[in-house]
Amino acid sequence: MNRKQKKMLVRIVVSAALLLAALLLPLPLWARCVLYAASYIVVGWDILRKAALGIGNRQMFDENFLMAVATLGAIALALYEGSGDFTEAVAVMLFYQIGELFQNIAVGRSRRSISALMDIRPDYANIEDGGALVQVDPEEVAVGSVIVVQPGERIPLDGFIVEGASTVSTAALTGESLPRDVQAGDEVVSGCINLTGVLRVQTTRAYGDSTVARILELVENSSSRKSRSENFISRFARVYTPAVVFGALALALLPPLVRLAFGMDALWGAWCYRALTFLVISCPCALVISIPLSFFAGIGGASREGILVKGSNYLETLSQVKTVVFDKTGTITRGVFEVSGIHHSELPDEQLIEYAALAECASSHPISQSLRRCYGREPDRSRVRDIEERSGRGVLATVDGVRVAAGNDKLMTELGVPFTPCRSAGTVIHIALDGEYAGHILISDVEKDDVREALTALRAAGVTKTVMLIGDAESAARQVAERVGIDEYHSGLLPADKVALVEQMLEAPGRSGKLAFVGDGINDAPVLTRADLGIAMGALGSDAAIEAADVVLMDDDPMKISRAIAIARKCLRIVYENIVFALAVKFGCLLLGALGLAGMWAAIFADVGVMVLAVLNAMRALNTKKL
Amino acid sequence: MKKSYKIEVDCANCANLMEQAAKKTPGVADATVSFMALKMTVDFAEGADPAKVMKDVLKACRKVEPDCEIFF
């Protein structure tokens, strides 16, 4: 509890004691009245003050004004009827304040627990100054400085390791609990926790551009992008309060006048009381608070799993996704090309790879890089002579005195070497040694292990159609599609075709639900923005992806898509529960109040009770464990 | 130009009212208030002086919620 809340608590306790004294002590009427008045003023003076200020500012319909009118009205009624029983007026004010205090504490607490989830902000960076470590503000560290990260500390800035080896945990960023081994030369991302060894990191970015700062900014701004439900509630709140006030006015005036017209007793007192009950229920706070709180909790829960949602509106869209379109590279496949097969080779596989890697040693093409990765050693360039690159075809070189030709079908045709074409998907490198065909190496983008499970999980989460966009040729596309079990695929696409295709799908007649596009954020930004919802995968360290997408998955685990949808669904379910529940109780109370079946006591309990339950319900959105 | 400010406000509906008030202030193109993050994001109109506009925003907000605070 903060100071404001403690002060309020003291006021409530004092007021309650005064009220009890007035009720229980055998005092003369005037003394009881003094106690009532004291109790009322102690607990409600700020409400009265704000109500008066509100009138001055022509803000007639705020809750302070309404509470003031309701309680003062009840006091006036007690005086008019001469009962001298002010308990109700004082108690209503007291309970209202208790409710406000409770709400304040609950909201403060949820705000803190959600912020704690997202607390990846590094407090300091260690800089070595003449042998001693000095802690400085990460914002003051210049790009290119060397910082020291000790075990247990959070890496404050993006950079690469110049010295030391350790394991780092990315759990706070990606939700991935398995720590990663890093050593000198590796890049490290701010926000990760250094677990075992001391690291010296040369920073590559200032704090403001570092991953951690960007993520924090994104999450903090997420609640300013409001969802349709939130906008609905704030519009509703604007209409609701005045409507209830006019309803109260009508309730106070119309029935007694009608009764008078029919020659009955007007019963002014009873109808005024019912009207005042209306005013107590007129505060829309339970609704207004629980909806943004649910979204805030949902976004917080998702970010703990490494799923960043950029706004409540996107969480809402995410919950309605029925079609998921994948851009193959980086989502279904790793986006890393690897040697996936060696066919028709008479030589041992390693030897063929060695020839290929050496022949390609001068090239920086991704294909030659994957050959070198497969080779596993740094190629010894002294063994290679007479390298001749043939653009778009391949490479000729002399390795250990053998004339090696490594390239595609065209190169083989050009050299007049008969070759065996490959039926598998991917890039084929034929090898010819001294003009003799020696087999081919297949290089392809490797599929992720759990794509199939991820697609099944997506269907379980309510997605009805999965589509894959792929740049490869038809045969390769079909193989991939069959292997992972995707519903539909479109092959041979250029980046521009992808936008057109997604637009076509968006405009397809009879489409229900929303369309999400999943990409790796590299050169698919236009599609990410064009789809109903853009999801970028494997975004840790990729600025373009964080920029373009609406939902950012920090790692590249395809299972996260269905989890994100499940989290969004749960959050939205809670939102609707709260809307329906709060409205039902409010309207129920209004009806009972109008009929005279519910008094002010019931009204204030309904008001405060609904709010407390709605806040507690909203906090469920934070729990994403069991989804 | 967009800027965000820390705010202090006690009730959710008041935060909504503050948002309305801020939106209507001259020099403000758009404004959003997040009660959960206790943050007000103001998109200033072309050529507006943020410091001056924020004074008016605070004044307008004080009218709807006397106890609110905007830190700028």
Textual characterization of the structure:
- The complex is a heterodimer of chains A (about 625) and B (about 70).
- Chain A is an alpha+beta fold and about 625 residues long.
- Among the domains of chain A are: about 140-205, Calcium-transporting ATPase, cytoplasmic transduction domain A (Distorted Sandwich), CATH 2.70.150.10; about 305-325 and about 450-570, HAD superfamily/HAD-like (Rossmann fold); about 335-445, Calcium-transporting ATPase, cytoplasmic domain N, CATH 3.40.1110.
- Chain A has 20 helices and 22 strands.
- By secondary structure, chain B is α+β, with helices and mostly antiparallel strands.
- Chain B has one domain: 2-Layer Sandwich (Alpha-Beta Plaits).
- In chain B, strand 2 (about 30-35) and strand 3 form a beta hairpin.
- The interface of A and B includes residues 100, 104, 221 and 288 of A.
